[in-house]
Structure formats: C-alpha cells, structure tokens
Specification:
10 helices, two-stranded antiparallel sheet, mainly alpha
C-alpha cells in the first residue's frame, strides 16, 4: 500500500492527475453542452463509489477482513486506516464522515448515505452536496473545463463545457487501451486504478461514451472484455 501511495505521488508530480471522481464526471459530460445526460440516474451513486475507491487507493480506508462466511464487497464494512488529510476537499469530507460514524457501515450503505438516500433523518448529515458542481469546478481550476451560463427556458443553469480536449482524449484512450491493445487476461496484472475506473464508469453509466468512437469490431471486443470483468465480481 505504501508503494502504491508513493507511486501516486511520483506520478502526480509528472503530470496533472485527475481523481477517479473527476475522470468519471469527465466521461459523462457532453463536450459542448457541459452537463451530464438528464437521463443518467446512476452517476450520483457512481461518484460516491469513486470517492470510497479513491480513499482506499490512497491508503485512507480499508474493508473489514473476510470472515469464514465470505461476504460480497458491498456488504463488507468500511474501516479507517489513516485519517491523514488527502488535500482534496471532497475526499477529506467523506473521510471525516466515515471516521465519525458509529457503528461502522458497509460499502453499499456509505454510497447511499453520501448520496443522501437514507430514511434515517439523523443520518442526513452524511450527505455530500453539490458533488458534480464541485468536481466540475476542480476541473475548471485544472484547465480542463470552462464555466458558462445557459438558459433553459424556465431557468438558467451553470454549465462546464470542455476547454482542453487533450485531457479527455487521453482519458478515453486510456480506457479503450485497457480493454484492447493493453488487455491482460489476468485481472491481477491490470493496474488497480485503471481497473477501478472501468468498473466505476460502468456503474455510473458513462463507459459507453469512451467506446462510442470505436469501430464495430473493436467495440464488440471491448464490451466482451468488460462483461468478463463484471462477471468476476
């Protein structure tokens, strides 16, 4: 885990690194319009899943140890491994909630709590608000998006069209290559961060956007390999 953290820092100094949340949002955003599809009702939960995965990759949280009766990943409880700040406001906010929670919650519960989908009014304080807007502002600061106001007849909406297409092109190429030219039949040989991105982009219903430019043949191969990964649980 320490090696992974070190690798993250080294990579970070070489180029501007996007978090999993920013990458998934970027895949979901329409380039010119600057907003996600109104029909996508998965991305909100998907972004919370990105936060938990990002915190795990950075060595801040871990899942409880497996017991004799094996539980699925979603049903295992989340434990604090280190409460050191990450430097990312959203991640630190989520980490703080997990730290304060008593009793511990499992992965699925945390995704629901951070999304605000709970029937317990006492747990509404765990909700992270304006996540998409805050992530878009991060991408504006990183020079990937810009900010505009658009009029939708009855209301005005702040949108974030793409301003730096190279960053999104690199992201799309990374996703495509991971299941095509750089495909490794052994899941253990796929870089953890890339593997997480594939799963999370699928869960957020934005993976299709990365495969849209592919030829029919490559698209079929890519989807077949994604289905193989999904079936591994």
């Amino acid at each position: 885990d320490n090696e992974e953290e070190e690798e993250y820092d080294q990579h970070d100094s070489k180029e501007q690194r996007l978090t999993l949340m920013e990458e998934v949002l970027l895949l979901g955003l329409k380039d010119r319009e600057g907003y996600t599809s109104f029909w996508n009702d998965c991305i909100s939960a998907g972004l919370r899943g990105c936060m938990l995965t990002e915190l795990a990759l950075r060595g801040r949280i871990q899942l409880e140890k497996q017991v004799m009766r094996r539980r699925s990943l979603l049903m295992r409880k989340v434990e604090i491994k280190s409460d050191a700040p990450t430097g990312d406001v959203l991640l630190d906010e989520a980490l703080n909630h997990i730290k304060k929670s008593n009793p511990q919650e499992n992965v699925q519960n945390w995704i629901e709590l951070l999304s605000g989908e709970t029937w317990n009014p006492l747990k509404l304080t765990f909700q992270l608000r304006n996540v998409r807007e805050r992530l878009a502002k991060n991408l504006v600061e990183k020079g990937v998006l810009t900010t505009e106001k658009q009029n939708f007849l009855l209301f005005d909406m702040t949108t974030h069209p793409l301003t730096n297409s190279s960053q999104k092109s690199k992201l799309i190429k990374k996703v495509q290559d991971s299941v095509l030219s750089k495909w490794a039949n052994d899941v253990q040989r796929i870089e953890k961060r890339v593997l997480a991105l594939i799963y999370l982009a699928h869960a957020s219903d934005v993976l299709e956007n990365a495969f849209a430019p592919l030829s029919d043949e490559d698209y079929d191969v890519a989807m077949k390999r994604v289905r193989y990964l999904l079936d591994l649980n």
